[in-house]
## 1
Amino acid sequence: MEAKLDEIIERLKKLEDRVTALESKKGVEQKEEVAEIIEEELFEDGPQPVKVVPIEEQELEPTDPKLPKRLFKGSKLEVGEPLKPKVWESQGPGPLRLKYLKSEVQSDQYARSGKYNNYFISHLTVVNTINEPTSVTEIKAFWWDGKEWKAPLRTVLGVKYQDWRGFERYDWLDGTTSFNLKEKESVDVVVSCVVELQGEALGYEFRNFYSFSLPQPFRTKLVFEDTLGKKNRVVTEHVNPKLSLVTEKERKESQAGLTFFTYCDDTKSFSRIYSEVWRDKWNVCVRISASSSYYYWDKKGLEDIAEKAKTVGKTEYELENLKVIKQKEGIETHCYALCSFEGEKPVTYGFKFHLKTSTNETIDSCLIPRRPEGEESLTVTPTEIQVGQEVTVEWKVTEGNSQDWIGLYKSNETSNTSYLKFLNCDGNTTGKLTTTIDQEGIYVFKFLPYYEYIDVAVSPKVIVTN
């Protein structure tokens, strides 16, 4: 509170000094100074587009007793709505009028010698309001640091033109900010105000952002001087776009079957890595955003992981394909299969994720999403037949694929590769097929997806006699 009061007192003193200086000015000059003071007093700072909220270190109970404890360490990023730039009127006694069109920002992707530039680009229409030619002899730019106007590193003028394909382009006039105007002519120009900052640039993803350390919105004052020495000015505002951080809600909307999502923010680079788990038709899928791929396992694949975990005696078995280490960015990710050896054979029942950035750390886990029991079904009628008699096989599944098939097996056959007959389902989720069995014995039919050998439904036994 005291700091805020000191700031207000300092601001009032500066305002008093400027009002005192007005007494020495007269006419148009005094009027313009008053207009500028009023304009500056209307400036309002907006919130930063992203807020860093400390969470220090939180150890939370797991979502299921089988799972390890959860850990969240560091700070989280909270994204706000983007500001809307205010349009300020052109001011000045000269023949020029400056019409604001739009503004944009760009930033160097890399720092050089510990410095990088932000570019605040204002699109304007410059109008000559008189019936004779005139010229813009100089353009000066200033930026508002929250207390006063400062000169940028440099000011660059660009004039719009159409290239041979009809696309709009800008010819950047390096070393000059002057140009001519015919009587009553309007010219579209851009003015780039270049501000140099110390530190590291945020990188490619932030090329259309300006530094979060600068005021929000960022204001530039552009002063155009004509051949008569008269000056016209306009204030332009620049705002950052909304910071895009992936959320669980967005992922659920775009990734069908998503059952788990966790993330780890980096408050230095204003970025987020995340991991997610979902179930497609037959597979359990895992993605870590820091990796370029996602991985999936069917029932047999998960059983194989559990067998490997048992061999090395680890109930938390690291999946090497999901291990990512990016030392330069400070990113490290690990995914562990959670396995149990208590039953007749080992099982994989969950995943544990350990995500680290240069500022944060997250440990979170989930159970493997299971398909509802009885979702796929396979029936056969009749269940007692003679050799050569037809039977009808009927199936029902949630999703169909052109490579789904039904196999005929001896009832005591354990290998799904040893099928006696192959029936194509043509991608239908429901249907009936008829076939014959030519030898006596006890048989079953199995529904297998994608030409694979993992059954998802088994029919009742069929007894065949002579």
## 2
Amino acid sequence: MTALATQDNIKLYESLVLKGDLSGLQPQEKAQYYQSLCERLGLDATTQPFSFLKLNGKEVLYASKGATDQLARVHGVNRTIIEEKEMRGVYVVTVEASLPNGRREQEKGAVTIENLKGDAFCNALMKAITKAKRRATLAILGLGLLDETELET
């Protein structure tokens, strides 16, 4: 391996690990990284548990609802809705996630529901639940994966 190749690998590793930016990877490398991450986490890659997203100039992986549902199953995470409330046009759901060892984490999911009706209102309620469950799952497992608060909601 040449010094240049080693230097390029170090820069790539730095970009990936320290900055969380996947944009420096070639398509084949992205596929390998995706597969390896799924294997490490016990996820079925064929169900597409992650999406590649551009965010703040970086390409990142976003764990979908499918990813967190699989993670909950694989790691025995129990998720319970402990509170649902409306505050000033915002619907807030609090979920508690727990592990068999007794560890617990609580997270919230919130969406604007002001002026929503019909299906849009129903979808917003479900979205708040999904957000809370997803956040609680990632929190209890200590995974530093992209959180929807970093996306447009």
## 3
Amino acid sequence: MDLNVFAKHPMEISENYIPQQTTFWANFKQRNGWNVQAFHLELSESDSLITYADMLILTQRIAPDATMAYIPYIPFEIPESYHYGDVLEQITESIKHYLPKNCLFLRFDVSWESPWVYEPERFDENGNWLGNPAPHVRELRMNFGTRTHALRKSGTDVLPSNTLFVDLNKRPESILQKMKSKTRYNVRLSERKGVSVRRANKTALPTWYRLYRETTLRNQIHYDDYQFFEALWEAQKKDPETKLELLMAEKDNEPLAGMILTMNNGRATYLYGASSSKNRHLMGPYRLQWEAMLTAQQNGCETYDMFGVSPSDDPTHPMYGLYRFKKGFGGHLFHRQGCWDYVFNEREYQLFRTEEQQMQGYHN
């Protein structure tokens, strides 16, 4: 296996279906204080090209004399016969001299499917996935056959490691029929009650943000400031290949729910969402999700990424409510491998890891 890596300008990367690996995202993260680099990767064997992709790497200061590097959702697939750890190690070894000298680790948000979904012992008698095993077991598997054994399972996942994909390659009525009966009923009930969804412009962003803050307070989760979403909105103007929609579900001009939807190369992603605590009987979030799917279809998308659920039907998980809601729309549950750190400075990394684990991520 041979890996060739070439540096390139972040605003010149090829577009793909992952919004976090686009010029739109590069521009957005630069506006939020990250340093952005880009590379072209080519993976080959016996002079035969296996796969290739352009990839963003983000770096940020995490201490006065230390930085971290982060790759959001690796933007290419590898053959099943290849060992994940080998590929991550080769990527790191090929690009580490481009990283700051005080970089403690390179964090990969690994978008590839978890290998543990194919282990029968990881399922209970009802067919529910029990999740990944303990981190040290996962590390043994990931580092097997690598030269440095430097890959560590991150204490937190930055982007969702579990999601639901809805197939949009069907007629709308067929998509509705694939939903659970209660979800389908709520979609139609919301329509009957007069809930409408509009494609809003930037003037609606303050209204959406109020719903978003209400949602984060209700669920006691981290929130980003208004300037964060202003930067997101402005960044999409620099990338015509990325479509960004602000969808608002309303009844009599009263906002019920809203979402920021991205569309890239055939995939739509439910990036950020919010809902009101009032008038929940109107089922605004159900109408909103359905309209997002129709909007995605109209824009040529074949897949809708619902972007974040609990790994299984587990009432104790903080994302269980999202699992119950989103599962009703008939999507396929997909388990990514989550974040992995290639460590350059073990001692300083462990100090950072201890501090980071005190702020556990929502997607663990």
## 4
Amino acid sequence: MTGPLEAIAATLDAEGGLVAAAVGPPPVGTPTPHGDVAAAGPGRAPEYAQIVEAVREGHLTHAAEWTDNPVRPQPRIVTTDDPDLALLVGDRLYALGLARLAELGDLDAVAVLADTIVLGAQAHATGAEDLAEAAWAAGAQAVAQGPREAWTQARDSARAGDPSGASALRDAARQLARTGANAP
């Protein structure tokens, strides 16, 4: 069975060109927790795993270019050492995921992922790796369950620079996960 990252790499490879030359398959067994969470939501298609992981990979690719922080998660399918090409590939990954969501008509999920990208960029710009990871955990749950009040409040808190923003996002992720676990 092809996992989300393998499918994304195959899609980009089939497009050809510079982007295709800058990606490869992920290491065997690479986890895709954010995509798995998003695809497990009520009424969500398995394609949501690919969508969320494409956007996540774009985020990781852009974040990797900002610093050599060894703690920061690294891209899993982007293989180029050329920083300009890596940014282009990151942009293509963002576009791939968001366009697929728009094709599905899930504008709420487009908005959630756009907010998640912004929160992640804001966090990386200030060296707040914990905030970036919390944003992705909550964002994946909000895609799965819908952007409920827990997501909106935590997002707004983090966006405003509240020192407890990462904690609020982690709490929102847990609350949204419980919502999904209690769904019929």
